[in-house]
Design a protein that fits this description.
alpha/beta, Rossmann fold, 7-stranded parallel beta sheet, globular
Length: 317
């Protein structure tokens, strides 16, 4: 049996492929962006085949699906950085909506019998009222960024193609997921990189930050990919599942934990350029539906994840 993982060269894609290698005997086909400048990731396994293509090219998508006919599809590719969606909303929608549309149309054309995991985002919920917390799947979708709106569109497309065409789609709405290897534009990786550079003498002893009061739901990426596998196998076709720790942690707490691990004194300074528009004060998930369906619970403590992120950046700088 085969699994297709789009975005194999992305942060979560690599973790998912390694999880599938360890926990299943699936043959894995990973897509890598055709015009990317980075070398292909090396998974050191004959069970992994990488295909370079542009998922916006319908013929390329159709060719891969027809050639491999995967029984599982994990759709991870797309534009995942909220601030970038403000700068270029059109590109965000192209990458997050039209790619999915290409996948669905190609699946129907090839008459594939496959299970498809569509990865949305907690950002679909957007403007949250205090009485909405913790956020469950029945909470209204009121996105406050182009990224969130693009993910709502993905979500509804997945439901529509299940309802109209009988596709076995399962939707997940992950909240903040973190771990070693994440791009430095994300908050935990940004903090850890700055600390590692300061320790190495490559940066002045000043760490710059955005809003420290915001509270978010952080989950280790290893727990996230395990949730994806369980959701696709045991979730209801057409169903939707939040994925998160259920704990609201402030950015200040994240920074305090990382600073406690630093090997040298560090000064912190606010940076207006790091402040986001429409920043929601508290964002925390109720993932009980996923737990009931699959038994999933996060297993890796936040402190361990932050230690791992900082250790990774120390090696890299």
């Amino acid at each position: 049996m085969r699994a297709l993982v789009t975005g194999a060269d992305g942060f979560v894609g690599g973790y998912l492929i390694n999880y599938l290698l360890a926990e299943t005997d699936l043959e894995i086909i990973g897509t890598v962006y055709k015009y990317g400048k980075q070398p292909d990731p090396d998974f050191a396994s004959s069970r992994v085949t990488l295909e370079r293509l542009d998922l916006l090219e319908n013929s390329a998508v159709a060719g891969v699906l027809t050639r491999y006919r995967p029984e599982y599809i994990f759709h991870l590719a797309g534009q995942a950085f909220v601030p970038l969606s403000w700068e270029n909303p059109r590109s965000t929608f192209e990458q997050n909506v039209f790619i999915l549309l290409n996948l669905f149309q190609s699946i129907l054309a090839a008459k594939l019998d496959t299970k498809i995991l569509v990865v949305g985002s907690g950002d679909e919920y957007g403007a949250i009222d205090p009485e909405d917390l913790p956020i469950d799947e029945e909470t209204r979708l009121r996105p406050v960024s182009p990224y969130g709106a693009s993910k709502v569109t993905q979500d509804l497309l997945a439901w529509q193609y299940h309802r109209s065409h009988g596709l076995h789609t399962v939707r997940v709405r992950p909240f903040n997921h973190i771990g070693p290897g994440q791009n430095e534009v994300f908050v935990t990786s940004s903090f850890a990189k700055q600390i590692a550079e300061i320790e190495a003498g490559k940066h002045s002893p000043v760490l710059r930050h955005g809003n420290l009061e915001a509270k978010r739901d952080f989950t280790d990426v290893n727990d996230i990919v395990r949730a994806y596998w369980l959701a696709l196998n045991y979730g209801q076709p057409g169903g939707v599942y939040n994925v998160g720790s259920g704990q609201a942690v402030s950015i200040q707490q994240i920074l305090d934990i990382l600073l406690s691990l630093a090997k040298t004194p560090i000064i912190v300074e606010s940076d207006p350029d790091r402040m986001r528009p429409s920043d929601t004060p508290v964002f925390v998930s109720n993932s009980s539906r996923l737990k009931q369906a699959t038994g999933w619970e996060p297993q890796i403590p936040l402190e361990q994840t932050l230690y791992d992120i900082l250790a990774d950046w120390r090696k890299r700088v």
